[in-house]
């Protein structure tokens, strides 16, 4: 197939440091090319990919302050794909937040399918429903439920690169929190859980205002250690060396790539049951899914004692890139076939000036 992948243009694909969307998009592009598909990646010029690279911007707006507002940069990148839509059988647009490609989807001769990488709110979904025929690919069943009323063409879990996440049969003596420093990620709960369990905790994420104002006063350099933001190789070593990854989410998320990364290293996960966590963690096999922090603390001894080889094997079954690429390719083929059968059949009826406005 001739496929356009539209990545965010905040940073390169793959990212130099952290960036789950760019990481997954890189794996998808490489996997599709390896299977003989003709792939064009719309991303920053600093990206490295075996696909054909189309770069509207040399570098991402995270690195270039002149590229602002960021929404306009994303729109220009999307428009570049739609302007060339006759060269593709499908366009897949990745969006951290708003699916900006919706506004262009009826102008494209190729189907434009959208993936959003956040937990959408009801008002957002209501707004997106102005394009009810536009297909989405959800990253979890939990996220798909949030897209009620829209066209969900499929659910595809993210994948991770096993070669970049080597197995560690024996852990070092620490628990790990790896993620952005926000209240929703549950870093304060992670510190509380580690202290109550008597285990050492390493925090790994980029420093921000929330860290400096709220988290830093709790870091003592002994029982609670700040490890900073880590590059991919150091990230894998840190994940593999942990006795367990602590994931006490306070706000729902559509996936949680760090869960798959940890389990692929053989590191079990202790997580609160929020968002897609229950889909990703096999309770009692790759970790534990708990309904309260008290239960998580009580269950930590069981989690750190899980068979790390079994954790790794199960993660490879569920989060290998081959599985993700095959599922996406199947959805792309179905969307392209539907478009060939007649795009008009999927279009909503056109309003005239005498029609009442649609209700929101």
Describe the structure.
The longest helix is centred in the C-terminal third of the chain and has 21 residues, at 321-341. The protein has 2 domains: 2-159 and 321-346, Glycogen Phosphorylase B (Rossmann fold), CATH 3.40.50; 162-317, 3-Layer(aba) Sandwich (Rossmann fold), CATH 3.40.50. α1 crosses α13 (321-341) and α6 (187-197) packs across α11. β6, α5 (141-146) and β7 form a beta-alpha-beta unit. It is globular and about 60 Å long. It has helices at 20-34, 70-83, 102-105, 122-128, 141-146, 187-197, 209-215, 232-241, 257-264, 277-280, 293-304, 308-319, 321-341; strands at residues 2-6, 38-42, 52-54, 90-95, 112-116, 135-138, 151-155, 175-178, 201-204, 224-226, 244-247, 269-272, 287-290. A 6-stranded parallel sheet has the order 10-9-8-11-12-13, sandwiched between helices. It starts with a strand and ends in a 19-residue tail after the last helix. Mean pLDDT is 94; it is low at 344-360. The protein has 13 helices and 13 strands. The chain has 360 residues and is α/β, with parallel strands linked by helices.
CATH superfamily of the largest domain: Glycogen Phosphorylase B
- Tell the overall outline: globular
CATH architecture of the largest domain: 3-Layer(aba) Sandwich
Helix residue percentage: 25-40%
* Main sheet record: 6 strands, parallel
Helical segment count: 13
Rg estimate, integer Å: 21 Å
How much beta, percentage-wise? 15-25%
SSE arrangement, N to C: EHEEHEHEHEHEEHEHEHEHEHEHHH
**CATH first level of the largest domain: which class?**
Alpha Beta
